[in-house]
Amino acid sequence: MRAIQVKEYVKGPEDLTVTTLPDPTPSPDTYLIAIHATATNFFDLLQIRGKYQHQPPLPWISGAEFAGVVLSTPSAKTSPKFKKGDRVFGSSQGGYATQVCAREESLMPVPPGWGFLEAAGLMVTAPTSYAALVNRANIQKGDHVLVHAAAGGVGLATVQIAKAFGATVIATAGSSRKLEVVRRFGADHAIDYNKEGWAEEVKQLTPKGKGVDIVFDPVGMVNASLKCTAWGGRIVIIGFTSGNIEKVAMNKVLLKNISLVGLHWGTYSKEEPETVAEVWKGLFQLMKEGNFKGTVYTDREFLGLEQVGMALGMLGRRETWGKVVVSVPQGTGSKL
Q1: Same domain, residue pair 117 and 146
Q2: What's the pTM value of the predicted model, to 2 decimals?
Q3: Does one domain contain both 253 and 159?
């Protein structure tokens, strides 16, 4: 197979190279998947530099999200969930390759009508957004929801889910192109967070200027968002893409009766596996109803593992929107 193997930590994605390696040998409890599309993530950038909280022992194959076709099923399972030839998406270390081994619980069926490119970026972003809004923030019809960094993969997923639940969505983004994208995906209002006074503008977009009911924050903007959060509002903390882990003004939290809740989706499979099934059931229903679509970045195409470095570089420089996905050809007969 061909893969991006990390033998030593690198300064940046432009230093990644594609190499030929033996095909992976699945263990008795894993599937072997032919990858047709692989998605990029910010944590991939941290991992190749040796700065992520979960670092595999060197050498390892980079990447984590993918979509493709089942080549073989687990030998230890008499009734596997998927059969040879099934189209699946999922996550497993080693996504930047032509083949990968993955456990059953880390795979899902490609939704009807979806292509590999669209499905490759679902496994991380979609359930994060759904669990944040539904399980942690208890979203209700009529809520006003502020989505920060709304043009990113997780942001566009959140915009769609909030709209599906009957909320009014106020989205923030950092460029005119990204503001255009969030409107296209359903945001009712789009605000440039680089503009001075954006929090007051958010308040004025809510009934009687009371502020938003829910804030979705993957950036690290809690303190700024407290200015435009309603009494009794909920702020869901997803991450810190700004690089800044805030010290929050807790007196404002107290005086406005605001709930601060965190969401780390990756821990649910260990702590609340039953919730994982509920979240995916809800997501597949939204897809069936046509209320959730893929968020693949389409301003340019990335074809082949050789372009993973370029895709990651653009992601890291915040030059993209949505999920940045790379097509992975499987020989001359492959159809993506």
Answers
A1: no
A2: 0.93
A3: yes
